[in-house]
Design brief:
- Helix 5 packs across helix 6.
- This protein has about 170 residues and is an all-alpha fold.
- The longest helix is centred in the middle third of the chain and has 41 residues, at about 80-120.
- It is built from seven helices and no strands.
Length: about 170
């Protein structure tokens, strides 16, 4: 099975040096008016915070459902199947409502603080995440007193930085 020289030559052709050095230039696409308006709406701190609160509430609801389903009644041996089902459904409802409120507040506070700090500093960096995490952690644990608020501040700030670094390394 012989291949002619003309076929080999066409396969092995190397582009001239001027073609190889020239970068590919692509036209710049300008955003449409709808895209600009959508970006302006999303850059509003109130909108961003409310959306984060709603999404946090949804996540908390499902986490509560999952964890509520894992609760075992203390008197499981004495309960009928129907009683166990009713007990588990009530536990899932209680847990999901409590987790939804907690995660909603957490998402709302974190995104609001991060957005306000980012707009005030006119920078998007780790400092914004540290401040937002500290305020959120301190707010969420403030009922436990000053020590709890400080521990919550430090813990949530560290956790926020770790999460941001994790997602930055994967993008």
């Amino acid at each position: 099975m012989a291949v002619s020289n003309s076929e080999n030559d066409s396969i092995n052709e190397v582009p001239s040096s001027s073609e190889a050095e020239r970068p590919q230039v692509q036209a710049i696409r300008m955003p449409t008016i709808e895209e600009i308006r959508a970006q302006e709406v999303w850059n509003n701190c109130a909108v961003r915070s409310v959306v984060s609160g709603v999404m946090g509430g949804g996540l908390g609801f499902f986490m509560g459902m999952l964890l509520g389903a894992l609760d075992n009644p203390i008197m499981q041996d004495e309960m009928t199947g129907r009683q166990q089902l009713v007990y588990n459904l009530k536990q899932m409802g209680r847990r999901s409502w409590g987790s939804a409120k907690t995660f909603a507040v957490m998402g709302l506070v974190f995104s609001a603080v991060e957005c306000v700090v980012e707009k005030a500093r006119a920078k998007h960096d780790t400092t914004n995440t540290v401040v937002a995490g500290c305020v959120t952690g301190g707010t969420m644990s403030a009922r436990g007193g000053p020590k709890a608020a400080c521990a919550g501040c430090a813990g949530f700030a560290a956790f926020s930085v770790l999460i941001e670094k994790f997602f930055d390394s994967h993008s």
